[in-house]
Amino acid sequence: MPLDKHPVRPDVTFDGGDLDCGSGLLLLIRRHIDPLAAGKTLEILSTDATVQVELPAWCRMTNNELVSVEPREGRQISYLVSKERWGAAAAPSVVTGALPAVPKREHIQRAVVEAPKIAPFSVMGLGSWPRPRWMLRAIHDRMAGRMAEEEFQAIADDAVRLSVEAQLRAGVDVVTDGEQRRDSYASFVGGILDNCQLIPLTDLLPYVSDPVKFEKELRALDIPAHEVRHPAVFGRIARSRPLAVHELDYARSLTEKPAKVALPGPYLLTRTMWMECLSDRAYASREELALDIIEVLRAELAELIDAGAALVQFDEPVLSEVVFARTQSGSGGRSFMCGALGEKKPIDEELAFARDLINAVVAGVAPERTALHVCRGNWSTDESVALAGDYRPLLPLFQQIKVGTLMLELATPRAGEMDVLRELPDDKRIGVGVVNQKHPCIESVDEIVEKAEQGIALFGVQRMLLNPDCGFATFSDNPVASAQIAEGKLRAIAQAAARLRERHKV
Question: Are 61 and 202 found together in one domain?
Answer without folding.
Answer: no
